[in-house]
């Protein structure tokens, strides 16, 4: 199969996740809790940021009451925007155990239970997420330096890195459930890079559609599980 065909197969794998999510109520139920939890946490953090800044302004009396309300509203919106930018890394860490359950359920429903027997514990799931996010932060720091000192290189490089990690965030879940090391994971992903890039691009584009982007996590995990199961079966 040539790389272009594999690229479009990668896109197809992502949207097959949406089909399974709708078709099986059990999967949708598993996905519903992390979606609700994510929304509540984001709103809570945004409100908390707005409240703390507002309290400080009220005590310092730097602005009139109307000005304080405007600043609070702006802080709330800014906090939501920042959390939107780091949505996937945050959910990869804090919702890791739920992601694992979704992946395992997907394998069970599609008859690939033998490929996903190595379930991680609660803290191990979070630790795998932390390691991946740490790597992302290092690479994003490098991209940030390029963007400051060499924008023509840094900007497109940043987009490519973001798209790639959008897919890797999801694919890391079923790969981690097989107990693979970080080196082995990236070796497998590189071997299937056309598939991974198509998959990642689909997730990246959906992430920018309001409301629908709340489904990015469960659809991505389901699609990633289907892709990884297919790659493992292909190579075995």
Question: Features of this protein?
Answer:
single chain; globular
Percent of residues in helices comes to over 70%
How many beta-strand runs?
0
Indicate the mean pLDDT: 79
What kind of sheet is the major sheet? none
Number of domains as seen in the coordinates: 1
Helices, strands, pairings?
Layout lengths: L2 H21 L1 H36 L4 H21 L1 H8 L1 H14 L12 H28 L1 H26 L5 H10 L1 H14 L9 H20 L1
Helix pairs in contact: 1-2, 1-9, 1-10, 2-3, 2-5, 4-6, 5-10, 6-7, 7-9, 7-10, 9-10
Describe this structure in words.
This protein is mostly helical. The longest helix has 36 residues, at 25-60. Helix content is 84%, strand content 0%. It has one domain. The two termini are 17 Å apart. Helix 1 packs across helix 2, helix 2 runs antiparallel to helix 3 (65-85) and helix 2 (25-60) packs antiparallel against helix 5 (96-109). The chain is built from ten helices and no strands.
